[in-house]
Amino acid sequence: MIKQWFKSGSPWIWLNAAAVSTCLILVVGLLALIVFRGALHFWPSNVAEFIYMEDGRKQTVIGEVVDTSSTTALMARASGHAMADDADLLVQHLIKIGNRDLTGMDFRWILDRNIQSRQYPDDILVIERREWGNFYGYPVALKQEGQVIAEGPQVFPVVSERLRDALSVYKQIQRLEKKEIGAVNYGLERLRLKQRRLELNEQWDEAAKQLLAAERGEYERQYREYQTELQALYKTINRNSLVVKASDGREVDMPLAKLVRIYRPNTMSVWAKTGHYFEKIAEFLLDDPREANTEGGIFPAIFGTVMMVIIMSVIVTPLGVIAAIYMREYAKQGFTTRLIRIAVNNLAGVPSIVYGVFGLGFFVYILGGNIDQLFFPEAAPAPVFGTPGLLWASITLALLTLPVVIVSTEEGLSRIPKSIREGSLALGATKAETLWRTVLPMASPAMMTGLILAVARAAGEVAPLMLVGVVKLAPSLPLDGNFPFLHLDRKFMHLGFHIYDVGFQSPNVEAARPLVYATSLLLVVVIVGLNLSAVAIRNHLREKYRALEG
């Protein structure tokens, strides 16, 4: 019976089904973990005040309970903890205490057995800062130009209103510094390069000097106006400061200009926490990062990922389709064609880091260096295209995903019946017309399948991008309001590299861990969104040309 069962092939079917089911369960479990940890990161937790005994001294610890760990008595004794004879477990709590500028750390472990009391006072403030992370403490006073204007219970409502005004002023400062003054600096740099180009071409005469001097004078006038406006805004935003008392009794005077958000989680209702939750998600999606990428948002990484995938798709799709059309429709089927197909299939198995090394050596140093010498000699010795950037990253990933598009397109072309081609030719159409009006539309779903696979792989790649364009923090986006608007020579941020950087290069591991889950969740959402868009287009094309296939 068993021998016949094996001969029937049923065991291998069940084995394959078990393997597929196991993989599916693991993938779903991983996605569930990412969703749970990533989404929970933004929910405001209550802040506790612990009376804690350590080395015979009583101290106050304020913070959020992030994690709880239970260790067996045997392992606890091996780690150096004193344990009672009847004790079974050692329970520890990981507390986010913040106040890194005072304590030197954001997190600390405390023993549950040493906690004498735990309470959740209503007046504890959580203060999100632009530097040094969160601050936990009690409000003492609000000052305006050094004079106390509110104390005690009156501080929170007054400081909340003043902080809203400070944030509005901060946005104006950011607009002036990044957009207006940034445009002036960009214009001055273009004038400098233009002058250098004229000098190299021996065209730097009196007329050119006067023309550039007039343009430079206009930029300098605009710069002085912006600086005057900026000084007034800085004077306004630095007017107020908040005095807060930490858990150890020290008082800290913090200017409102350096604060992002103030709230009292212990008094917030479920609706208030829900509003705070969505506000934090919006900040995560739309703001720039801060605190070594462990705080703030990741909009530049989202933008860079999507921009790179779009440019890569624009490059790889026509190249892959043209190569597949030539090999299937025009090339003579023989040894050379088979060799090319083998080479294309083998390219799909080359490690991605090899493509990165090739992109760095050929695209960046050779191609980019020669472009700089031919078209941008005035920028020397600073490179323009002779350095990693968005263009070279997109081309490298296009080369990496090219075999996928070629194979998918060629398979789509091979499935089109020969009778359709013959019928078109019999009606008087040329081979090119047959290809353009009949064959390619019917093969378009297969092309979209190749593009879907290419996008899915490219959006998640990290290793080659580290060599050809991705950076930890990009000072400006590749797309802005300065001519030529799309700056393909600029470096950019990427979600995959952001996960690697925050998860493995961050100096603050505990603060970075929840952000890794949140960014991973976002990367999955971006990839799924791009794929669903391509799938919708493919299905539309498939339905459109289904009658031709019949």
UniProtKB/TrEMBL annotation:
The chain crosses the membrane at residues 12-36, 298-326, 347-369, 389-409, 515-537. This is Phosphate transport system permease protein PstA. One of its GO terms (biological process) is phosphate ion transmembrane transport. Its main location: membrane. Residues 209-236 form a coiled coil. Residues 302-534 form the ABC transmembrane type-1 domain. It is found in: Cell inner membrane; Cell membrane. It is a multi-pass membrane protein. Keywords: Cell membrane, Coiled coil, Membrane, Transmembrane, Transmembrane helix, Transport. InterPro entries: MetI-like, MetI-like_sf, Phosphate_PstA. GO terms for cellular component: plasma membrane. SUPFAM superfamilies: MetI-like. Belongs to the binding-protein-dependent transport system permease family. CysTW subfamily. GO terms for molecular function: phosphate transmembrane transporter activity.
